Structures are given as structure tokens and as C-alpha cells.
Amino acid sequence: MRRLRACLGAVAALGIAAAGSTALLAGNASGATNALSDRWYAAAPYLMPLDNDPPDAAAIMDATGLKAFQLAFVLAPNGGGCSPTWGGTSPVSSDTAVQAVIDRIRSKGGDVSVSIGGYGGTKLGQTCSDAASTAAAYQQVITKYGLHAIDFDLEEPEYENAAAIRNEIGAAKILQRNNPGLYVSVTTAGTTAEGTGWFGKQMLLEAKSQGFTPNNFSLMPFDGGFNGAAAQTDALTKFNRILQSTFGWNEATAYAHEGFSGMNGRSDTGEYFPQADFQTVLDYATSHHMDRFTFWSLNRDRQCSPPDNGGRTSGTCSSVAQNAWDFAKYAVRFAGVTPPTTTPTPTPSSPGTACKAAWSSSAVYVKGDEVSYGKHNWKAKWWTQNETPGAEWGPWEDEGSC
Hints:
The protein is an alpha/beta fold. The protein has helices at residues 38-42, 57-64, 97-107, 124-127, 131-145, 162-178, 198-210, 228-247, 251-256, 275-287, 328-335; strands at residues 9-10, 46-47, 68-75, 85-86, 90-91, 111-118, 149-154, 183-189, 216-220, 258-263, 265-266, 272-273, 292-296, 364-365, 370-373, 376-380, 384-385, 396-401.
């Protein structure tokens, strides 16, 4: 799953002074391609290319007209250090699997942004010594993939670490200066009471103190007691006022620097955001000329089996009734393109999947081990013993019915 609580993310235009202030030029970076319009990067939904049963990005493009994807997540190595990895385990420097996904998307005229952070794992802002070294680590990601956009989704515990956030915002400023044209956004936690909470406000003040302004500050109005679209748009309105008061912007300027990052279907904390809620928020975002509209995640943009998934949240389906890629079409509409009119066939989890060995309360399981419990298969996300599969925030990832 992405996160237990809505979080801070910072998308930063990247470049590295320590590496020689190399400007981002499409013809120079490995795997680079011509940039899309910023509107596509602003509409790019999240996709985990290595986890949570990754869907075929090319098939999504064909079915919806989507052109941009937000690939997640780059983290510090699990063993420590200041070098970028996918999920804390796969070094970016030697990656070929994600590169193949990117090449496939670009071969069809699309492009990607890369997301840094997410819920869980260690973030580079925590392990790198200062802003310059943090920027240097992120520059490796930009150079490796020839990026035109990057997303910093910086969540707990980094979100509550002032020194780590100072490193991230400082790196963002360095990188924005050294890589002109890179699309930048910063995503932060949403609250129903104020729009964003204390840590979100501190992040904005840190950006102000450093003189850093990204393309947008995006709000995640979920996992905080949000009751549908009305609560989400209310939080976006409140967040707009915070942007005005923090940066001295008028309302229109604040909306032009504001974004929305939602969660499709059932959220981590049991809120529900079906297609009608997405349409309401999309109407709000477009009518207020907001800069970004995205969601977590495309891995979840398909129907579970049964559709409500037994009242559980999954990383691989939405837990609401839908056709495959229904939610991706709202991102396409935000980008200004009408999705294809054909309706794709839903892709629920296969009910005929064989069950793994039964879970045992006495056994010790490590990351990647698979078991069956309650007529579902489950995969361990970390070391665990005597923790029953099915807990919403437990160590087990639901792999669907068996």
C-alpha cells in the first residue's frame, strides 16, 4: 500500500551542482526523449513498475489515451547510504527492468515521471548528509532515465524530520536551477480541519525560507476522515488559503500552484472515492485552473473479485465496482484529451488461482514469502511471525482470491 496517513511529497526539478551543473537536454541523457506538455506530467497517475502486480502500461495507453505515468518509488538503500534504489533494494545505477517499462511507454509516444519517497522505507533526505548530496543522488535518476519530470512523495518518518525536509527542499532548489524545464511538484498531507496539518505547513514555510517555488504543491485529501468529494474539495479550498497566506499569492495564483493527488476506490483507512467523486474533484480542479490532478494508483485501477474485495483495501484493485482503467480516464480528461469511447474488459483477480501453502502462526516469514489464508493468497512485505494476514496495515499484501 502507499501510505497509512496522507503524506508529504516534493517533486523537484533536478540537477546537481556538485556534478558540474549539467542542464537537462533531451539529446544527452541516457534514454531521453522529447518532453510532453507539462499538462501530461501534471496528470500522470502513479504506477508501481516492479510491485503490486504491475499492469501493462502500453495497454492502458491504448485503452484510455493516457500518455504519462508516475513511476514509484525511489528510496535510499535498505542498508543505508546516499544512492537511489527502487524500493530500497534495486539500485537505479544497474536497473534494466524499469528502463524496459520506460522504453515501452516512450516507444508509443508517452513519457514518465519518477516518484521519490512513498509510505515506508528510508528516504534519501534522511540518509544523505546535506542538500547537495541529496541532489546528487536524485541527479543520478534524472540522468539514468532522461527525465523531464520528477515527484517527491516524502512521507513518514521523513515527513516529521525537519532536517530531512530541509535536505529535500534544498536539493529541489539546486536541481531546479541546474535542470531548466524539469516539471516539479511537492505533495503534502491533507486534513479535513485545515487543508493540511502542522507538518505540511512547516514544509511550505521551509520552501518559502529557501526561496523555492515548484510547479505546484499537491494535496492528498484522503486517509484522514474524508467523506467523499465534498470533504476533498473543502480541503483543497482551505489549502488554497494556506498557499495564499504563506507565499503572499492571490487566489488565482495559489490555484495555479495547487494540485490534487487522490486515491481511487477504497482508501487505506476505509474511505471510499468512487468514479462520481473523481468527476466532482476533476470539475473543481479544472474550474479553478489547478495545476495537477493525479491519483494512487494504476495498479489499483481495476476491479477486485469480488468487486468490494471483502471490505478490504488492496494494492492491486480498487475495492469498488468498475471497468478497468476507469480512473485513468479522469487524468486523461484533466490533460485535455477525450479518452477512447470503447469500454475495456474488466480484469478482476482470477478466482481460479491456486492457493499457496496455508499460513501458520508459528512459522517465521520474510519479505516475499507467500501463503494462503481466508481463501486469499498473501505475500509478506517484511519479516513477520504470528501476524494474521488480512490486517489493513499488517505485514501481508493481498494477492487476491484463490
